[in-house]
Amino acid sequence: MKKSIIIFIGIVLVTTTDILAQSRKYISQFSHLQGYFNPALTGYEGSMLRGFVRNQWAGWEGAPMTYFASGELDFGQLSGEAYGDVLGKNAAGFSILHDQYGAFAETEMVVSYASRIQVGKQSNLRLGAGINYRTVRLDGNNLTTEQADDPVVGQYVGSFSDMNVLDFNLGMALTHTNYYVSYAVHHVSRGVISSGDVFMERMPLVGVFQAGYRDRLSESLGIAANFMYRNQTDLPDNVELNVKLILVEKIWLGGGHRIDYANNFQFGILLDRMRIGYIYELPMQRSYLIPNVTHEFMLSYSLFGDRKGIIW
After folding, report:
1. Which pTM does this prediction carry?
2. What is the per-residue pLDDT for 150?
3. Boundaries of every domain in the chain
4. Fewer CB atoms inside 10 A, N or C side of the chain?
């Protein structure tokens, strides 16, 4: 019981200030999953398949586990255009994210579409929209003592309950071969379209600002830097950044920081069509989180042609 209470306190600190079901998904390799955070960035790196696993606080029973898979199709590449980040006018994508934390298991599916207007030789203005369907299952057998006393979720002790929410995401971005600046809004309708049991508040609006820069320092060395800021009314602001060095277009090494929460170290391998990434994340002592480390594994595969340019 003591272990469950500690896990519950840690999850509350990192994910929510109200009900546990109002969770925030932390992904240290956010720069590789741009289209998930902003529908306008769907297909920005061309047609790709991606997979992702995050094992948070490894070794603790009931700690969050996140699984992600997505596919993005740049229609311009279907007609033979080589660089999907510059040419082409339209792209579509589908992503699914499953997150399990304590008594809650959440599955989110997003269908996204992006349209691009070329405003420069190597730059585009992008607009995107996504349909977001989320189902949350509550397992009343895994509620902690504190949760069981909650008047909202406590009524499901010893039983199962499901809630389904349909919502929308909107986004826009200015993109270039070497940089991007973007802003998106999640849960535009604030979860007004829902079914099943109601054990969580209406979805709050989430604002997501992302920016990045990449360039070659020499023939054998490149650099990429990324920044993300998320704002949500019921949670503290989330600020993350990372920097990577790309060596001979085969390996990347880097580090990242989630302000007030964690630091991470990054390693990746670049193949002709595939990239494999790993992150080792350490919580900061003053964040009062569970001290166990977090592991992230990411795999991306380019559907058309060899990988081009420097990664984000």
Report:
1. 0.84
2. 66
3. 2-195
4. N
